[in-house]
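$ ./design --mode recover --in tokens.txt
reading tokens...
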């Protein structure tokens, strides 16, 4: 039985959410004594990773950091306005077109032959290959390939606010929580500075949490960015085949509401592309 089953009784059409509370308090209140790894229940990265009971009832759980001096992470649960996919980007719906061949220039191809020594790519290697081949910067329409390269896999301890649903006058606070970013780099489009924040997945068709993308962008200290720099969330899905790597890319738009808060269920893709990159050989 799902540990979240008790929340159903407190949800109503007028109030389709439960107030944020500590996970430890929730467990104690409902007599849940078995040992649980908090991240397995609260840090939802994909639709497939969401608790089946919550998924069945169109409910999404949000990890909300922690209160200083309080044991256990905070979380909130809310029902989707339309369907649970309001909170996710689903691969099969984002990437409907067949991948196009992406030609890698000879100069770059020569430098990238080291990748052929690897029999199998992981998430980080696949993201690195797509970036160095020029696929990501090409799809995003950058003025030129970023000279500073891309930093991969970093973490922030961050506090920020957001709206779980755009139609509700409800703001949740993420407090002193750890946020992980898969990749980040600066670039310019039509001369305008942009910070691209990458969420990457490698393997079979799945999905990406919009909250995961939003958290990564909201965690970046705005005072450390160049003036008028736009933060752009990008989802990169890679699949390795025998002689090629398929790179699916979706750029999303962070929509601000009237109170200048990002609403998770209004984060939408503004461009998607799919390319097959032939793997170089010695």
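writing sequence...
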């Amino acid at each position: 039985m799902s540990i979240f089953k008790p929340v159903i009784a407190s949800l109503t059409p007028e109030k389709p959410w439960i107030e944020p509370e500590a996970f430890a308090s929730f467990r104690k209140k409902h007599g849940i004594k078995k040992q649980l790894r908090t991240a397995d229940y609260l840090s939802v990265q994909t639709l497939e990773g969401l608790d089946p009971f919550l998924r069945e009832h169109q409910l999404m759980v949000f990890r909300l950091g922690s209160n200083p001096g309080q044991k256990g992470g905070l979380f909130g649960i809310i029902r989707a306005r339309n369907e649970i996919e309001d909170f996710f980007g689903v691969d099969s719906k984002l990437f409907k077109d067949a991948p196009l061949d992406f030609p890698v220039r000879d100069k770059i191809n020569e430098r990238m032959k080291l990748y052929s020594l690897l029999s199998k790519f992981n998430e980080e290697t696949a993201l690195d290959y797509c970036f160095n081949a020029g696929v990501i910067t090409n799809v995003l329409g950058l003025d030129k390939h970023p000279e500073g390269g891309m930093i991969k896999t970093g973490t922030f301890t961050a506090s920020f606010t957001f709206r779980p649903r755009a139609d509700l006058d409800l703001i949740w606070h993420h407090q002193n929580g750890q946020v992980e970013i898969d990749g980040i780099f600066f670039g310019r489009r039509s001369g305008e500075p942009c910070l691209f924040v990458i969420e990457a997945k490698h393997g079979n068709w799945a999905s990406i949490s919009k909250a995961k993308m939003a958290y990564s962008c909201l965690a970046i200290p705005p005072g450390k960015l160049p003036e008028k720099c736009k933060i752009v969330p990008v989802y990169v899905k890679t699949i390795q085949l025998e002689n090629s790597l398929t790179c699916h890319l979706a750029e999303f738009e962070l929509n601000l509401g009237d109170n200048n808060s990002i609403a998770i269920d209004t984060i939408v893709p503004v461009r998607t592309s799919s390319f097959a990159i032939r793997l170089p050989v010695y």
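exit 0
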